[in-house]
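Hey all, sorry for the wall of text incoming. These are the two entities for the joint prediction.
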Amino acid sequence: MSTHSAVVEHIEGATTKVFLIVWSALLIMTGAEVFLAYEQIPIVIFLTALVGLSVIKAALIIAYFMHLKFEKLSLFLTLFPMLILCIILMLLMFLPDSSRLMMMRPQ
Amino acid sequence: MTSAWSGGRSPFAVNSKKFGMWLFIISDALTFSAMLMAYTYVRLATPNWPTPFHFSPSIIFSTFMTFCLLSSSLTMVMGVQAMNHGRRKAAVGWILATMAGGGAFVALHLTEWLNLIHKEHVTPFSNEWGVPLFGGTFFALTGLHMTHVVIGLIYLGIMAIAVSRGKFKAEDVEVSGLYWHFVDLVWMFIFPLVYLMSAKI
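and here's what came out:
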């Protein structure tokens, strides 16, 4: 395994231009998030937009900066379904209970 | 044809260091997920949750901190690319640029913390709104992230010195890059959920 690093690796699609585009997209989405924070929009829509944009940003970082797009599919399938399942399990407890807490707030 | 899983070769076609780092990242991602959910849970349970983040300086600072981290991720990826092409000197330059971005992040974050502590009187145990859980969860979450950034700076510093002396291979730089990108990725959730959701409008 260790000998292959001496050879110049060329990954199809992993070019400086692609990285610059991804970086610009991440900056634009960050700008959009800050803009949304000062717009008068319902809190649920705002929160959904923020989480949605964050997930897209995370996916871009993982795919391009962390090179996962260029790795074998088996690596992705070993790592991420488990992570997503664990987060869903946490949300299964978090979402109903936190909404119950909101209802219990003194008016 | 023998299966890729029958032994004797890596079924993921990655070296063991990179796979180890990926496993660490997944487990660390779960730690941060749990902490973010805990923060949001307490926030939803508290009717008078404080919103002490004024546009200036808190939101301006945290937005610029996001810019620093995103840009440091770009320089890190350039460093990995330079190393893949055998350009060690260029790789060291890019790693040092990454460290500059990370250093700026830590400096701005500490300034922002001091601003909260001195001007808004928020500490991990108390604040003037009577919601001690705000400081507790805020400092725990951002503190754990800042610890990751500081460890990343030490890690990259060691890499920069070693690479400049002709030690380590391209794959080792890539593994350190994975860690750095993960630290950046976590901030992509902390920034909107902690800062923007509590921005003072």
